[in-house]
Amino acid sequence: MFTATEPLPLTVPTTIGESATSFASRLARRNGVPRLIAFCSDVGIDYFALVNGDPVEIQRLAVLGDIDPVPLQAATPSLIEPGWFRLGNERIKFTGFIRTTLRICPMCISEVRNTTEIVHHGVWQLAAIRTCVKHGRHLVAVPKPKNGNDCFDHVPMLDGFQPTAGDLAASQDPELERYLTDRILTGPGKSWLDRLPFHIAAQTCEMLGALLTLGPRVKRAELADAQWAAAGTAGLSILRGGPEALRQKLKEIQDSHPVGEKRYRSHYGVFFDWLRFRDDDRDFDVVRDIVRDFIFKNFPVTVGSTVLGKHCPEQLLHSFSTAKQVFG
Predict the structure, then answer these.
(1) 164-180: string of b/e by CB count within 10 Å (b at 16+)?
(2) Residue 206 contacts residue 271 (beta carbons within 8 Å)
(3) Which of 71, 79, 14 is nearest to 46 (CA)?
(4) How far is CA 41 from CA 1, 35, 78, 158, 258, in A?
(5) Is 0.85 surpassed by the pTM of this model?
(6) How do residues 77-96 score in pLDDT, each as one tens digit?
(7) What angle do CA 23, 26, 30 make, to 5 degrees?
């Protein structure tokens, strides 16, 4: 049971953007407790509720650390319903996060005297955030702890960790990251892209950008952070123009291929396959529908053939065939 009404004798300073689990991990080490889960048990905080950003547990942590709970809450992914989190002013699906792999800025590590000074930012749990804003370095992954329950306890995980220097991000490449961070800070805007769910906007920018920057045959698993960042910027530059800009870019890609090349998958490869394998998430339908409709209208698809989960209607094929007869 939580009964504390006063701060702990030993506290640590926090900074804007630090997550609750980061602050708690540092507070635990400052008070001589080797594991965050044990520290939470000792002081009467529900560790697993804290990990999921529970407001009551964050308030309790703030009392112990003598800090304002409001910025701590804003920087912590908070479970608001099954599969969905609140981070800042955004509602984000769990698929937009990498929550069980700790990623950290190598420069942030090199600048401190001990691990209790290393802050882990809540936005670093997002898959599409790959860069430390302060240092412009790509984040590096830390080896996972032996006990899976400790994956949010970053201080012990960094004991003895010797990261590489980390790649320096090109100044123009984190444009998607800046866009997503703005959405977290101020909430989504009113444009077509802004109205897409956060994880849809982020992933569509990256995957369209991968097609544009690396071609249809690239393997997603082989992309480095720098390539993902460049891809995100390229995709964002198109999708900010809305559905019509996407259709125009799809047409440009089609026109860039040999006239006799009629296989749409050879044109859109990595982007198309990614959409196809996201069929378990209906939120992607807004993008799928645009791409599918474009394919039906611009490629010779057999009536009844399935493209991105739906059959080709006869009337669209007929229109394509008629146009082919008229214009050769």
Answers:
(1) eebbebeeebbbbbebb
(2) no
(3) 79
(4) 9, 10, 20, 22, 65
(5) yes
(6) 999 999 999 999 999 999 99
(7) 135
